[in-house]
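User: Last request for today: this protein with pyridoxal-5'-phosphate, please.
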Amino acid sequence: MNQPSAQGSDAAPYREGELALSADRMRQTGHRAVDLVVERLQDAARHPPHAVASPADLAGLLHEPLPEQGADLTALLEHLARDVLPLGIRFDHPRCFAFVPTTGNYPAVLADLLSSAFLSVPGAWLVGSGPTRVELTAVAWLRELLGLPDGWGGLFVSGGSVANLTALAAARDHRLAGVLADARLYCSTQAHPSIARAAHLLGLDRSQLTALEPDRAQRLDPRALAARLEADLAAGLRPFAVVATLGTTGTGAIDPLAELAGICRRHRLWLHADGAHGAAVALTDRGRELRRALGLADSLTIDPHKWLFQPYETGCVLVRDPELLKHTFRMARHHLDTGYLHPAEAQGDQINLDDYGPQQSRGLRALKLWLSLKTFGAAAFRRAVEHGLRLSDHAAARIAAHSELSLVTAPSVGILTFRYRPPGTIDPRTLDELQHTVSRAVCATGEAMLLTTRVHGRPVLRMCTINPATGPADIDATLDLVLAAGRSASRASED
Ligand SMILES: Cc1ncc(COP(=O)(O)O)c(C=O)c1O
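Assistant: Here's the final one, the structure of the complex with pyridoxal-5'-phosphate:
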């Protein structure tokens, strides 16, 4: 019988020159990639916090024919790091205060490298027992960091949106037993849009999501909720769950979890806490009250890719009774012909994490948190969260001390809102427009990034100070830019 030649058409394509590189090339290109990573991580402050290109420019750069033949990997890496990947917001820039700015961390970058190389899949125990154990440990550490009671468990997902969807799917199945008619889900208008999107994906129409107006402090108002529940029950509707937001994205407001838990207990409703951003405050002394209340919820979303300094996608959903996730998601519940999966069924005390969430093949997102906690220690994370709180206090004090700045919402979970107000009288519409002008002008300097949001219907400047690369001098310099932009815009409008 003829042996296929090593380079002939029968040769396995995973070989040098086809789908693989020589060991030397892998090392060379890998070293260059690490250099690019280190430059990126060290250079954050040396570039503007925001770079954007037009769709036409980017089409010119990237819209190209399918590459039939390969090209030099080092040149490709350089191209990406120089021309493509920097286009966007640099969330790790110390003067980036937009959305939820945070650094990643280097061990987490290496974690992604390793888990890619090892094709780690914490899905079925048979497929990835080591990766599964890493994820279970990372979940347990997260539970401990947040002070959640024993028994809570869960899994890593892409981010807060999928964590909310996963928890609410379990809530729907547990509380509604398959009947969606007249079901009602409650949150405040300040909840994240991923809640409304989850409701839609779970088969609820828009009338089945009740978004209540918040109180003056932008929190879900327990009295308004209780009244609405009574009315809905009297009308024969079927309330099944409430979403409390722990740190609304706009102003950082924390819904009163303990009071909401009392109402949910009375009405046998599932209480989901969306702490994607704000739950991390439970790591600190100031978050003690929240820490005590967290365990009153039935489920919790936390995004380590926000205030636990991880790269994307590192989200986590935690549930008081993880078996309820299994009830919704376990493969066997969704029987088609799964004969090929039988060899991968969990035996004895093995755990198949693909039974607890919507993905079967899943990346080892947990390794990022695991490796960075092991490298730096939990105390470093607690200090970094504290630092974000102190920065927002510092910003608030500077704003309060200046006659042309006024604080609109006090710092909460590292978020505050304020307005620039020129001396003298100014009509409300001009003052509103001025906030947008100031934001645009500050961003245009290329030195800082500060965006707007709305509070009680009026535009305000919003600052999120949780970036561990930011210091008080960055806050001061940014507020100076606000003052300069505000004065210049006010002068221009007088001319
Ligand atoms: C409170 C809250 N929930 C959910 C999300 C969605 O998280 P992700 O973007 O990770 O899906 C966000 C994002 O900012 C958020 O602030």
